Amino acid sequence: MGLSATVLFWGSPGLLLAFALHPALALHPHRDYCVLGAGPAGLQMAYFLQRARRDYVVFERSSRPGSFFLRYPRHRKLISINKRYTGKANAEFNLRHDWNSLLSHDPQLLFRHYSRAYFPDAGDMVRYLGDFADRLGLRVLYNTTIAHVTLDKDGQAWNGHYFILTDQKGQAYRCSVLLVATGLSVPNQVDFPGSEYVEGYESVSIDPEDFEGQNVLILGRGNSAFETAENILGVTNFIHMLSRSRVRLSWATHYVGDLRAINNGLLDTYQLKSLDGLLESDLEDLALVKDHEGKLHVTLKFLLEEANQSAEAIALPQDDNDNFALRVAYDRVIGCLGWNFNFSIFNSSLRLSSGGAFSKKYPLVKASYESKGSRGLFVLGTASHSVDYRKSAGGFIHGFRYT
Q1: Can you say how many angstroms the Cα of residue 401 is from the centroid of all Cα atoms in its chain?
Q2: Hey, what's the signal peptide range on this chain (predicted)?
Q3: CA–CA separation, 219 vs 213, rounded Å?
């Protein structure tokens, strides 16, 4: 191909020469801003970047925005309030009582137009986020899973480096600022003897008929645990719920992430001395053993280690931990232990680490939401909740809109 033909193909000799001299530019498409995740936080940031005429792109692993809400919560009812009426005409006041809407200049892109329910269905959130991205023309690359993120040191970059993002097909992208809005997606698991018998909240059946006449143990004591219990409360023999800490009720703690009244049916039956019960114990001290009939028994790890016997001969813990003994056998054990941030895709060069004991599920960030390990890496949305964990509502849409 002659130079004149090449110029017609590329547009200008200067651009062709740039690619010839810097092949990395051809291999790594560059953007000023890269956003990971097209959930609520990622789309909200994309909106503001677009309004500011910035060079950006959003990477989304699914074929549409809000993929988390396609599956979660498993029983489809959100705990974010859809407050449609306040008696006030002030738009800002009304928005502060609207827990689901994102900020935009379009009055039709308010969640009140997508659901009439006070606690809306998760499917309505998926539909809303899809319209938000489409109607505003946000630049999202769908079906693109970023599998690895690393640093490329460069003294000419404003922060001394560029971020290199590689997708599932091996395509690499380069950006100056990385905005991480991936949420919490890794189920939290506790490793103890017999933990392989535990069914996860993310995969257990949601059909109540599958639990008829069964004894069920639920590990965890948050909204997902009580949501699961609420779904099967009327068909089980009984439900026991086990966690290392006491139930924290949102109306008492004023923290929206604690147990909400809409999910606390099991707590009601427990207080009324029905067959259901709550137990407090550290999961790491326990063990599960299966008998010859396939029934699951809870014991203490040290009893299992000392006995070295068959499941039927293992001593069971007595009732010194609570007001009933775990002497019964269970048909199902379900783990509802919450979620963690996915650190696995980030190279160690980014120095992206978790916080302390009470915020280890979140990446460690400054008050400005910038990572403490890498300049130019910012964490958005639910994943940034370490900044106001148990203090404010940053784990919800209406919280991170303002934080």
Answers
A1: 17
A2: 1-26
A3: 19
